[in-house]
Amino acid sequence: MLIENRNGLVVDTELVLCNGTAERDAALEMAGRIAGDQRVTVGADKGYDTRGFVQEMRDRNVTPHVSQNANRSGGSAIDGRTIRHAGYQVSQRKRKRIEEVFGWLKTVGMLRKTRHRGLRRVGWVFTFAASAYNLVRVRNLASALSSAAFSLKPLACRNCPTSPPTSAHSSHASSINASSECGWPALSCCALHNRRLQASRAESCTN
Questions:
Q1: Strands of 24-113, DSSP E
Q2: Which of 114, 133, 142, 201 has the fewest CB atoms in 10 Å of its CB?
Q3: Euclidean distance between CA atoms 186 and 16, whole angstroms
Q4: CB–CB of 158/189 below 8 Å?
Q5: pLDDT at residue 185, as a whole number
Q6: CA–CA separation, 136 vs 126, rounded Å?
Q7: Which residues contact 111 (CB under 8 A, 6 or more apart)?
Q8: Beta strand 40-44 pairing with 62-66
Q9: d(CA 186, CA 176)
Q10: CA gyration radius, the chain
Q11: What one-character DSSP code corresponds to residue 114?
Q12: CA angle, corner 172, sides to 168 and 174, nearest 5?
């Protein structure tokens, strides 16, 4: 499975038969399908720290931000050319997000134990469940964004009127050349004050 770091959305899936190199083989397949010509980075755990995998990723125009396995025979395949960049540390923090996806798929997505047989059929269910996760994730992101927007307190402009017109307000209206017949400025810098402005303007016009 391949996810993007910014929002934790699944961008690709690949199901292969279990063997000693299945995860690395699937990662190489998905890396080869990444659109665009720009070099990208891919974070992974210590299980991907092999010289063959790292070199093949680089051949695909992908920088492998693989966690170093210092205990590996021959040492880590990731050297200072990669770990010296700040993006490497970011990838190491963000790569753990993929565990959230697997946790959701096993519990909510009911993939703890497959209910089908055959690589093609199980792969379809796996991709379908990952798509469902994306829908839930997008909904949660949109809800969080909406809540954050409503929690912002409006900033008051010193020129926005909150009381009946005064000479200062009239001069402000003249300076922006948008005054009404009642002497209120027709424009406001603040949405909250704009609502108050409309209510007070209607009362003034009635009187």
A1: 40-44, 62-66
A2: 142
A3: 65
A4: no
A5: 44
A6: 16
A7: 105, 125, 126, 129
A8: parallel
A9: 9
A10: 28
A11: -
A12: 115
